[in-house]
Amino acid sequence: MIVVKDLVKTFDGFRALDGISLTVPTGSVYGLVGPNGAGKSTLIRNILGIYKEDGGSITIDNIPAWENEDVKARLASIPDDWFFFLNSTIKEMKDFYKGVYPNFSEERYEKLKEAFPIDEKKQIRHLSKGMQKQVAFWLALSTMPDYLILDEPVDGLDPVMRRQVWSLMMNDVAERGTTVLVSSHNLRELEDVCDHVGIMNKGKLLLERDLSSLQDNIIKLQVAFEEGVTELPEALNKELSILHLSKHGRVFTIIVHHSAKEAEEILKPYNPILVDAIPLTMEEIFVYELGGENYEVKEIIL
Amino acid sequence: MKSKKSFFEKSLFKANIKRYWLIWTVLSVLMCLVPAFVFSQSRLELAHGNMISPKEIAYMYKALAVVAVPITAFFASALVGGLLWNYLYTQRSVGFFHTIPVSRNKLFVTNYLSGLAILLIPYLFAAPITMLVVLGIGAGVPSATFELMFCVLCETILFFSIATVSAHITGNIFGMGALYLTINFLSTFLTYVASRTYCRFVLGVYNADLVWTDFLSPLTYILSRVDLTNGDSAADYIGYYHFNSAVKSWMGGIGAIAVYGIIGLALCFLSLYLYKKRKSEVAGDFSAFRILRPAFIGLFSSVGGLTLASLIVSIVFNSREEDPWLFLVVSLISATLAYYVTKMIIEKSFFVFTKKSIKGLVALWIIFSLFTIAAGNDIFKVAYSHPALEEIDNLSFNFNAGYYDIDVKENEEIIKEFFDFQNFLADRADEIKERNREYENDYYHDFYFDIEYHVAKQSNSRFENRDYRLKLFEEDLKDPDSIASKLLEFLSNKELYKAMMECGQGYEIDSCNVYGSFYNNNNDYFDETLWLTDAQEMYDAIMNDIEAGRVKVSSLNQLRISPPIEVYFDLKGPVSERMGRRYTEPGSLRIQITKDMTESLKVIEKYSKKSYDELMKMYEDHYNEYSNEYSNDYSVDYSEDF
Fold it and tell me: FRET label pair with B539: which of A277, B70, B560, B633, CA 20 to 30 Å apart?
C-alpha cells in the first residue's frame, strides 16, 4: 500500500503539492487524473524518491520510501520520457537492470520477447518513440515489481500495443497482486482498467474513491416538471449538490453529487413528470468535477 | 536483499567502463607514445654511440610527473567528469538514476571510482610497456618510477575531484565548465589580472609575487613551481633560512603533490556531501544551490569586469602608470556590463534589469571602488616590496643595454644597496609618475633601470622584476638630491663594479675579445685581431681601474648609449648535471671601456697596436659605412663622454 500524507512540495516558493494525502491500496489499479499542472508528475516523482518532500510523508507498506533501496527494488516506473544509456542496446540495458534490480527475471524477459518483437541487439536510440516505450515496459515488467508507477504509459503506442501492454499489466495485477499507480489523460482507457481514482487540481486532491462508488455517487439526471415550471425551484437548488445545470426545452439536465436513489428521493416532493438517472463516464466526471473548480470548458468566440 | 553496508554498485561500474570505452582507449593509445618515445630516443642515442642511463630515465619520469601528467589529468578529468556527472543535468536522467534501487551514496562512490578507473586505465597500459622498453634498453627500473606513480595517482584524484565538485555545485554543463576553469585558474587570474591591475598604479612593479595564492591554481602551480629533479631538501633550510623557506622548498617538490592529493580526497568528500544536499529539480539551472547564485554572479562579474576594464585601459590608454580615477570610471562601466551579462547567463533570462538587481550592482561597485582606491594609494606598499635577502640567489640589473649578474652570497651589502635604491625610487614615485606624464612623448630623455631578483631556491627559478622608466634631464644633475644624480652615484659605486666583475659563483675567465658597439646599430664590429690570448691580463687591468675609482658613470649620455669600445669575456661556468649528464655552464661578461680606464686601455693598445683614438676612428668609419637610417636620429659626440 502506498500512503501519502499531507505531502508538501515547493519549487522556488511555488507550492506544487499543497498538503496532498492519498492511499493506493495494495493490488489496486489507481488512476491519478487531473488537469495540466495539477501536480501529478510531481507527486509521482516524490513517491519514486526523485524529489524530497518539503513536508508530510510517503510510505510504501509502512516503510518510508526515501533513499530506501529495498523499497525501490520493488518499484518499477515508466515515466513519460524514459531514459536509457546513449548507444546502448536493449540487451545492454537489460544487463544493467538485471544487475541493479535484485528480482529481475531472465525467464520473464525471454517470455516477454513474444509480446515485444524487437531485436534486442538494436540500439535503443535508433528505435521509434513507440518502440522505446515498449522497451521500457519490457524491462520494467521483467523486474517483477510489486508496484508499477506509470506516467502517461501508453502515450506513443499503437492501439494493438496499448491493449497488449494493459493486458500484461492486468495479468500481473491478477496473478501477482501488483499495485499499479497510473497517471494519464486518456480517461476512456483508464476507465477500463482502474478500480480507484484520484482527481487532483492545483496541488490538492479533489476526490479519491473507488471507481464504482464514484460512478454511483455522481450521476446525470434528466428532469422535466409540469408545464409552467421554467426554472429549477430554488429549494431544490439548495437540496441537490449540483455540479452542472443546463436546460433544453422543458428538460433540465443536472449533474449531481448523489446516488440515483438519493436524487429521486429529493426530487419526489417536486412532482417531476420525468426523472431519468444516467451514470457518467470517467471523462464526464473529470470535466464536471473540475468545472466546479473553475476549470470548465470556456465558450470562446474567435 | 542487497547489503546495506556496500557503497559500490558493480553493474553501474561495469556499465560506465563500457559506455566510455572510447575515452580510455584513446588515452591509452596516446600514453603509449611515451614508451615509443623512449625507445626511439634510445635508438638515436645508440646511433651516436651513447646509452641512456637509469639516471636519465629517472629525470624523464620526474619531468613527466610535473608536466605531462598534470596537463593530461586536467583535460581528461574535465571530459570524464563532464560525461559521468552529466546525468545530474537533465530531469530525464536524474529521474532515472534516482529511481533505480541504488542509494545516492552508492551512486556517487561508484561513479567517482568509475571516473578514476577511466582516467587510470591508460596508465595501466602505458606503464608496463614503458618498463619493458626501459629494461630492454638496459636502463633498469629507477626508483623514480614510484615517484611517478604517486604523482599520477595524486594528480588524477585532484583534478577529477575538482571536476566532481564543480559538477555538484552547478546544475548544467556550462556552469560546470565555468566553475572548473575558475577553480583551476583563480590564482592565475589573481596574478595576471588582479595583481597586474593593482600594479598598474605602482611604480616599477608589473606583477607582485603572490606565491602562496599560486597554490590555489594546481595546474599552473605544478607546471611552474614544482620540480622533482631539484636536489634541494627542506633540511638545507633548517637553521640558516626561515621555516617558511623550508616549507616552500618542500612545497616545490613531492610535498606539493602529496598535499594536492589530500585536497583531492577532501574535495571528493565535499562533493558527496553536496550531492546528498542537492535537489534533483535543479537539473538544468546554473547553480545547484540557490544560496550560491549571488556568489556565482559576484564571482563571474568581478572576474569579467576586472578583465574587461584591464583590456580597455591597456588598449585605449597605453601607458605604464595609470590614473586611478580614469581606471575607476572604466572599471565601474565594465563591472556593470559584466554583472548584467552574468545575470542573464545564470538566470537564463534577458529580463534582469530589475530594482532588486541594483543591490548586487551597488555591492560590486563598492568592491571595485575599494580595489581602485587601494591600488591607487598602494596600501599594501608593493612598491617597496622585494624578496627577502636569504631567498635571493642571484640579482641581475641592466646597464648600458647589457645585463649583469651579481652573486648574492658574496655581495650581500651590494644587494642591500639595491633594496635601498628601490625604496628611494618608491619614495619619489609621485615625482617620477608626474614627469612621465608630462614628458610622455619625449623618448629621448627615457632611461630604463631594471632589477631582476632570482629566487632560485624554490624549484624552478622565479624572477621578480622591478622595471623603472625614468625621465632624466641634464639640468637634474645640478641637484645632488635629484633622481638623476642619485642614479649616477649608485652606478659609480666601485663595489658594484667589483661585484659585476665576479661574474657569478664558480665561473672562470676563458677568453676575451675587444669590439666596437654602436647604439641602435645592429652591426657590432668584432675584430678578430684583437682576440687576447691573455684574458686574465685584461681582467686584472679592468679590476685595477675599478679599484682606483676610474670606472664610473658621469653623464646621462653614458646611460643613453653604450660606449663604442667593449671588452667581452667568455666564461667557463660550474659543472652541472641535467638529465644525468654533466654540462659546463657557459657564461659571458661585457664591460664598457671609457677613456678614463687607463690600465685597461694600455692592455688594449698593447695587443691591438692601436691607440684609443685610432680605435675610435676605426670603429666610427666602420659605423659610417654600415650605419642604418635610425642611428642618424641619435648622433652623439662620443669623445665628450667616452
Answer: B560
